[in-house]
Amino acid sequence: MTGYIVGIDPGRVYTNNEAVNLGKCPVAGTIGTTGNGNVYKMVEVTTGNLTDGLLVTISAANKATVAAVANAGTVAQELGVLRATVTASGSMFAWAQIYGRGTVMASAAANANVALGMGAVAGTVDDGGTSASAVIDGLFLTASAGASSALTAAIIRYPTFEPI
Hey, how many other C-beta atoms are within 10 angstroms of the C-beta on 77? Predict the structure, then answer.
């Protein structure tokens, strides 16, 4: 059963042992907040080595996978921005931000306040949203990205892929 927790540590990553055997982690699907208006969902990382700010897809079973260009065709796919102070690998648990002010990995020179799509690198967003098969609804940059891919200020509002 999932629930709602106030006062979470959104950067905390839990090992599978901490989550499954020791009960130190909320159940996948639990919604949490730090009390500042940002909302997070506990997810289980399925594969790869995921770092802070990567865009992830969230399955109905609350499993997170790094978002890739191939995912863009999955209309209405729930998305989140992974929050992690350490690298999260497969079977680890972490918080994905689904609402509020935050940061997301953006491609070099991505512009603020325009439609976003997937970047060329998995987990990053780019301002070329109109050239892909879907745009990211509910996520926009509030600052332009720099000369290289980097964490960029953003507004996150329950993001999903949507058709153009």
Answer: 18
